[in-house]
Structures are given as C-alpha cells and as structure tokens.
Amino acid sequence: MSSDADRRQRILDAAADLFEENGYSGTKLQMVASRAGVTAHTVTRLSGGRAQLFGEVLAAKLTSRSSDRIAAAAADPMAEPPLAVLLEAAAEIFAAPRRSWNVLELEALTRAHRDDEIRALESARLDKRWANVKAVTEQTRRAGGLDADIDDAAFVHFALALSVGLAMVDPVVDQQPSQEHWNALMARIGSAFAPPELLLADQHGARTPWRLRIDIPDHPGGLALLVRALSTLHAHVVATSVLASGDGTRTIDLAVTVPKRVSADTLLSAAMAAGSNGHVTQGSPDDGLDLPTRVLDGATELVTNPGSAPLSAATLVEADSFEVTNATEGEDDATDVLRLQWTADRHVVLHRAWAPFAPAEKTRASALLRLAAALSRMAGDADALGWVEPIKNDATVWIRLARPEDADAVAAMHERCSEQTRYQRYLTGVGEWRDISLRHLAGGHRGATLVVMNEEGAIVGLGNVFPDVPEDSHVAELAVIVEDGYQNRGIGTRLLRHMLELAERIGFKEVVAFVLAQNDDMLRVLEATPLVWTREIEEAVLTMRAPLPVVAAGSLSPGRPSPSRATVKVRRSRPGHSNRKA
Question: When comparing pLDDT for 98 and 32, which is higher?
C-alpha cells in the first residue's frame, strides 16, 4: 500500500505534466487525480487547491540557470565580478529565454493580474530573484562599478523586466539580432552604468591571461573606451600595441588578465561594446613582455642560429604553425595565412586560426627573416639576394626580393603609371588592377617577386614569377611593369634577367609571358634573352613560351638541401587555445 508521501509525489508529477500540456486554466483537479491514480479528494487533502498545486510545481520543477548563477554570485561575492555575472545571465536569457522563464511561469505572471492566489505565489518567487539581483547590484556598487546616480532598485527592476520581456516576445519575434550583437549591446549598457571615473576595487585574486585583438575608432579616446569596457570585468591590461590603422579604425592587440570565472565570450562581449571585429584567445604569462624585448630575444637567437628564423618569425607573430616550403609550394597569402619570401627559393608560410594577420605583423616577421638572411650573408651564405644595377642617364637602381611592407609603395607606383602601362601589364581595363591583392603582388604568393627601387628609395618596377597554373611548379608566368618615367632605360632587361635566374633556381622548367602584340618594347626585351621562344597569338595577345636551361632548372644553392614542407606546430607556454570571433 502506498503512503501519503508516495501519493503526493505522483500528484505533483501528474500536475507538472498536465500544467505543461494544458496550462493553468486548462488543468482541473479531477484531471490530476485521474493521471495520478487517486481521488480528487486525495488531491485536495494532500496538496490543497489548484493554485497551491501550481505553486508547488513551479517551486519543485522549474529551475533557471541564469537565476541560479545570480543566486550563487549573491552567496559568494568573491567568486567572480558581478558585472560578468549579469552579462552572462543576459546572454543565457537571450539564447534560451524559456530556460530562464518557463511558459508556466509566464502564464502565472499574466494570471497574477486577476488571480490573487497566483499573484501571491509569483510575488514570493519574484522576491527571491529580486533579492539575488539586488545583492549582485550591491556588490557592483561596493567594488566601484555602479554610478552613484543610479538607484539599486531601478537597476534591479530594469534587469527583471528585460529578462521577462525577452521570454514573452521570443516566440513571436521573427527579426532577432545575433547573439554577438545582443551581447555587445548588453556590455554597452553595463558599461554605461559605471561611474565616469572608473577605478574598481582590486579583488578576485585568481586571474587568467587572455589575448584580445579588436578594431577601435581611430579617434582620441577610442582606446580609453575599450579599456573602460574591459575594466568593468576587473580586467588588467598588461601590454598593448597598435597593429594597423585605416578606414577610421585602429587594430589593437592587448594582453589582459581577468578573474578566473570570466569567460572568453564575456570578455569579448565587453570589448565589443567599444569596438568591432574582435577576436580573443587564451594568453600566456609571457604576454606581459614588451614587444622590443621579444624582438631582441628572437634576434639574439638568430645571431648564433640564422636557421631558426622561421620559428622566430612564427613566435613573434604568435602563429599556430609554420612551414618552410619551396617557392612553388604551399598556400598563398590569406587572412589566416602569411607567406613570406625568406630566400630566392625558400618561403616561410605561417598559419594562425584565432585572428587574421595584421599588416604590422607581416612587416615584423619579414624584417626578422631579412635579419636572418643578412646574418647568413655575413657568414658567407649568398641567399639574401639583391643587385645594384646601372641604367641609362648615369643612374642606378636596386633590385631585391619584395617585402610585405612594399604593398603601399607598389600601389603608389601603379597610380603613377599611365593607363596604357597598366593595361599592357594586366590586359584589363582602367582600375581593374586594384581588384588584385597588392599584398599578393608584393610577394605573398608562390614563386618570387622582385621590386626595383630608384636612388630615392621609391619602387619604380615590379617583376612577378608566378606558377602559370595553381599548384603547378613546371611552368612560370613572367610579368613585368615599369613606371612610365623609367621605361626605355634598361630596367626591364635587367629585371627580366634576374627573374629568369630565380625561375631556374626555384625549379621551373619553362616560362610563359602574355604580351600584347603591339607591345614592341616588351617583345624586344624577351627576344634579347638567350631563350628560344615560341609564339601563339589569340585576340591580339601573344603567348610567349620558352624552356629554361636544363642544367640550371631546379638547382638550389650549393650544399643546401631542398626544404621540407613538414608543418611545424609552434609550441607556446599557453595552457590552451580557443577560436572566438565577433
């Protein structure tokens, strides 16, 4: 025979199912009795009326992850920053409103307007939520994170009304923002509650290092807004640097430490309140080292071991992995791929998943590789290529391997070129050369790129040695452009000679050039080489092909083995890695 306790539990379970299926108004005591296998009298005796039973179901069956977290924070003020608690609760409510406000509780809130018993039940439940949010609000104020002009009760009322409203409109709103945009809005609102002079109490001792990369407005105060937003989470900024600037924004890299319970998503949300295009990854205790120190450490290693340049470059820009490839292998430049010309026949390809490579990082890594090449040259290694060449009018030019930072100078040279000169190079209409990645043209591709610099240091010519077909290391396409004021002075001839040397050294077996039939100057330069050319013409464009000397094809520097394409994972002292982006 079952006891009253057993029968009462069956009644409670049956009522929970029926209230979920039919709502409060659609559930009768007789239905509960039938589902529980007892009489209606027993239901009344053991649980009271329908309102009391409904209240017990709410208390026993409904839980809320967000409210539970706020309650835990109220009970343990030192567990995590109070604003982080509120931000993560807001994110949880937005992501799953019904897990925070069950449909039964929403029904109870609406019935409370005309049912005194239900109103009494909900008032008691809301009093508990109110007290917990109030406790977290008071913690925020004690830590210095709440403006003195903001009333605690008003803040709590706003928070509860916002969460209930989200749950109420969720089933019927079609045009919802993304989770990232919602989190950024909540972070902006949370930051606005802070006092104008934000100086929080130093607490929450256990801290976690993170790296943050984000675009901020390129205006005075832009960085201050970002630091203020992060400070609301009790974040310490331990290092910062500017990686890029343009289009009204600056790309900022920060090393921060935050209380242990602050998640990457919450950190990113706070940052997005003051910026855009944010990325975050777990940091390292070494992140506090300033950039010059890191650069000098890498340079010191290169003095005794120039061959460590790829690892040093990868460490400098915090790449996830790197590989040293033949000039015709591997990936071209992309947002998460950085390809650098190290020597004529060896490239370093870096990969990073957590954030795109910034222009400043490309420049830094390239400079480190050049330092290694210079040290190798001092030791008798001729890999660091560069030639000083005489040209007509008693002038000289310097021809060298291109660098990532050459992209702007290459663009400026194109702007100085006439429409005809650009058309002869690209065989396309005015302006279409801009659609081609200048970073790609300036060396971020398989093959090799040479630039020509005048005596003032301006780039006046560009020579590309591309694989004719992607992933093809047999045929190289040759392409040359010399700005108008330096044409017919012998630059094209000297540049092409060094391009052919590189094509042979890299290992191409054949070269091809696409030339307008009326471009007599370029045709003369090609015909002046010792190569034997064949011609095909189609729609006024000549395809010039020639085999490279068999003896030189594929040869590398004496005594140097062909580089391996094995990917090297960069090991850092970071405990983990994440890939979060907004």
Answer: 32
Q: What is the homologous superfamily of the domain 207-288 according to CATH? A: ACT domain (3.30.70.260)
What's the token pair of residue 102? 């069950």
Query: Which range has the worst mean pLDDT, 58-62, 164-168, 457-461?
Result: 58-62
More confident residue, 571 or 368: 368
Q: How confident is the model at residue 463 (pLDDT cuts 50, 70, 90)?
A: very high
Please give the residue that has the higher pLDDT: either 494 or 387.
Answer: 494
Select from 568, 399, 353 the least CA-distant residue to 495. Answer: 399
Query: Tell me, what amino acid is at 431?
Result: G
Q: Are 417 and 449 in contact (CB under 8 A)?
A: no
Segments making up each domain of the chain, as ranges: 4-61, 65-192, 207-288, 291-381, 386-547
Report the distance separating Cα 244 and Cα 439, nearest Å. Answer: 14
* Residue linked to tokens 């039938």: 34
Task: Give pLDDT tens digits for 188-230.
Answer: 887 788 787 776 766 666 688 999 999 999 998 899 889 988 8
- Asked whether the CA dihedral 427, 429, 430, 435 is positive or negative, the reply is negative
Q: For domain 4-61, which CATH number applies: 3.90.550.10, 1.10.150.130, 3.40.50.720, 1.10.10.60?
A: 1.10.10.60
DSSP 334: B
Is 207-288 in the same CATH topology as 4-61? no
Q: Phi/psi at 39 (nearest 5 deg)?
A: -90, 160
Q: Cβ neighbours of residue 347 under 8 Å, at least 6 residues apart? A: 324, 325, 326, 327, 330, 339, 340, 341, 446
Give the CATH class of 386-547. Answer: alpha beta
CA angle 240, 243, 246 (to 5 degrees): 125
Mean pLDDT of 22-34: 87
At 544, the amino acid letter reads M
Handedness of CA 439, 441, 444, 448 (dihedral sign): negative
Residue 461 CB contacts under 8 Å (≥ 6 apart), including other chains: 397, 413, 451, 452, 480, 481, 482, 483, 486, 491, 492, 495
Coil/strand/helix, residue 115: coil
Contact 98, 51 (CB under 8 A): no
CB 118 within 8 A of CB 51: yes
